[in-house]
Amino acid sequence: MINSTTESSDVKYHLPKRIILVRHGESQGNKDDNAYSITPDYKIPLTTRGIEQANQVGSRILDVVSDHGSSDNWKVYFYVSPYVRTRSTLREIGRAFPRNRVLGVREECRVREQDFGNFQVAERMKVIKETRERFGRFFYRFPEGESAADVYDRVSHFLESLWRDVDMKRHHHEPNDELNLIIISHGLASRVFLMKWFKWTVEQFEYLNNLGNCEFRVMELGAGGEYSLAVHHSDEEMLEWGLSPEMIADQKWRANANRGSLNDHCPWYLDAFFDHLADSNDEIGEDVKSST
C-alpha cells in the first residue's frame, strides 16, 4: 500500500482515477428462470437484448473515462468474471475502445456470481428465495451454494489483490496516464464490493437495490485522494440505489476528504454501535468518582 506520509498529489499520481463496476447485460436466466434448470449458471448466455445493452454501455463508459472527450491520456484495464454472460458483455463493451487505450484484461474468479447451487429448479428456487427474504439476504446460504456473506469474503480477497496490482504497478501504464479499472461482474458481487470498500454495515446492505443489466457505478478519485460515488453520480441516483441520506452525506464528504481521514460525522463508524459514549476522559473520571 502507499505510505500514509505520501503527499496528496503523489498519492493521486499512483492511484487509478476511477474504479467502475459493471453488471452484465440481460441473460437468458434474467429472461426465463427455467434456463437455470437445464444450463449451468456459468454457461448462461446473453440475450439479443443483452448484447445490445452491452454494446451501448461501452459507448457510455468511453464517454466517462475520456471525460466526454476532453482527456487525451486515459487508459483502461479490465477485470472480468469467468461466466459466459460477463465475458460476452466485456466483448461488446470492448468494441467501443481503441486497442491502444486498453492496457489489459484479467479473468477474475473471485468476482463471479453468487453460487445458487448447481442446476436450479424454478419452483424450488421460488420457495428458497422467499425463505431468504425472511431470513435476511446477507446471511442466508443457498442449499449447495453460497450466502452473500460468502461472496463478501472472496470479494474482500480480490480487493486485496487489486491493491497489490496498483501498488506494484502491474497495470503497466505510463506515469501520466489516467488509469481506469473496469470490473465486469454481477449484481451481488458489485454490491458487496461497495459494501466492503465503504465499510457499510449488514443492515445497510439489506436496503441496497440490485444493479440493472449493464448498469454501472463509478467510484472516482476525489480532490483529496478518497474514492466517492458522489463525484460522478447524483443524490437522486444514489437514493434510487438504496443509499440512505447518511450514506449519501458520507459519499459527499469523501469527494473532498484527504486520503485516510475519518469522517467524524459518519454515524455507523461509532454511534450506531453504542447507546452513549462520554465526550472526554474527564467525564469518564467524574463518572468513576461519583460511583465510589
TrEMBL record:
<dbReference type="InterPro" id="IPR029033">
    <property type="entry name" value="His_PPase_superfam"/>
</dbReference>
<protein>
    <submittedName>
        <fullName>Phosphoglycerate mutase-like protein AT74</fullName>
    </submittedName>
</protein>
<dbReference type="InterPro" id="IPR013078">
    <property type="entry name" value="His_Pase_superF_clade-1"/>
</dbReference>
<dbReference type="InterPro" id="IPR052765">
    <property type="entry name" value="PGM-Related"/>
</dbReference>
<dbReference type="InterPro" id="IPR001345">
    <property type="entry name" value="PG/BPGM_mutase_AS"/>
</dbReference>
<dbReference type="Pfam" id="PF00300">
    <property type="entry name" value="His_Phos_1"/>
</dbReference>
<dbReference type="GO" id="GO:0016791">
    <property type="term" value="F:phosphatase activity"/>
</dbReference>
